[in-house]
Task: structure prediction
Amino acid sequence: MVRNFVSAVWAIFKKDLRIWLQQPANLAATFVPSLAFLVVMAFGAVTVGKSPVALVTLDHGLKGVQLRQIFHNADVFRITDTTPQEAQQLFKQIQVVAIVTIPADFTQRVETHQQVPIDVQVNNLNLDFTNDIRRAVPDVITQFYDAQGTTSAIKIAVQEQDLRSQDIALFQYSLLPIIVLLLTMSSVFNSGLATAREWETLTVKELLFAPVNRGAIIVGKILAGFVTTFILGIMLLALGNVLGWVHMAGIYLLHALIIVALISFMGAGLGVAMGALVQRLQPVIALGLNAVFTLFFLAGGIGVLAFAQQWLQNIAAFVPLSYGRHALEMAIFYNSSDLFGRDVMILAGSALAALALGVVAMQRKIAG
Result:
């Protein structure tokens, strides 16, 4: 009996996998929405990550050159060194958000301990860019005075103590929620479409008349959705590691794989439930897209959840993807096991609940 059960599961698994690979529409529905969202996030990170600024250096003395170099090293601007006339042209054409001018007598006035203004002209068309400039320019000036040491008229000592061991770029930080989204969407679609197809093509009758345990049918479909998604997750992490977007080492690689497996199981269970209840391919795609993207946004997919409004944090506490995202961030970015046990328990419980939901939905529809 065990051998027959395993053989039936293997046969269902191979059939669903073969059909999935032969259906370009299914592949597109699985990958295109999330990959398109990834491209949008990448362009957004490039656009808002650093503010475009025209830097006009009228003083080519020691202090003027030093301040100009600090602006370049600040890593918060996309600087264009230019003349006053060219800067105004760029400003009018909205190619830069601000013009920063270091005056011609900057070195002289700093060395004689006189006040010296740094002229900042800002286009406040967007509060995000405007506030970035308002915060960053004073920070650069602070670094300049710190660099003067004991000769500085203003005594400033800057000491930074980072909470994390490394800095994470905006695009990198946005990448893991996209991976979680892609894994969830892949598992839901793979299992959901494979299940719904049985009813839409009426092949479910052949399965029911076949001399196999009906539990094997359900397990085979869930297994197909899980395996394809888990392999996808491994490929995404490997690709990210090769491109330098993610970094995993030692036990934290195992942590990441455990989380990918749990997300894949959870999505597979939900997909089987959707497919069995809806029994049509197009409605499964529409329902899956709406459900997965809703969970993604409620889990704080496009921002830092800890800094979000309290009501969103309260909702996210009940969304399992929040814990998957947190566990992956800790393992991949920070080499940390912080709250890993909590995240695994919640994801495992959610995966078991989703699997139970899929099994119940499939059994009822088969029995009906």
User: Anything to note?
Assistant: The CA atoms of residues 249 and 320 lie 25 Å apart.
